[in-house]
Amino acid sequence: MFSTDAWTRNALLYEAARTLPFNRALADGTLPMPAFRHYMIQDAHYLVGFAQALALAAAKSDQPGYVVQFAAAAAAAIEVERTLHTDFFSRFGVSTEEVAATPPTPAAHHYICFLLASGFREPLAVHLAAMLPCFWMYREIGRDIHARASLDNPYRAWIDTYAGEEFSRAVDAMIEVTDVVWAEAGAKERAAMHAAFTRAAQLEWMFWDSAYRDATWPV
User: Fold this and answer.
1) Which residues form the Thiaminase-2/PQQC domain (predicted)?
2) Prediction pTM value
């Protein structure tokens, strides 16, 4: 099936993301606050784009069950973005004005545009493959961080959100539906699914790396 094959093909890329300095430092509590603030602000921008990409998946779907699944996931992404504003931003000293004044970085902008272009241009199967790493890699790296983080980690409140069962069920549901559409896809579409999955996994790596380096537009 697609999910097993895609994960195996990209296992080294996942490991590279898991062991990034950002994720290692987040787990051991030594992540510099500017890097974490950078990550939160960019995540707020990204979540809006990701919700739009999920809404496009709902619009592409012919099956009512899929429409409900993707629309609900889009609403959940917006709810997480709102939680950032109402909880974590105030907890870590980020103002709404700062978020509004900070544009998406090259990594965030590229990732958002990639997902939206996928939603507008690609068939549903390819679009789902493009979105899957955000669900799946986030969960697996989050679980790894959660398992290693101490109770007095300054980012513990954020880290605990990784362990939510509701999100884990949503990830499993996305894996399942992507495998279903894979079974119905032709050879060309399957190749495009793998290419989309790998590109999204690379962008996941870039998103964390960009936050650690506090990367902005060079010109």
Assistant:
1) 21-213
2) 0.95
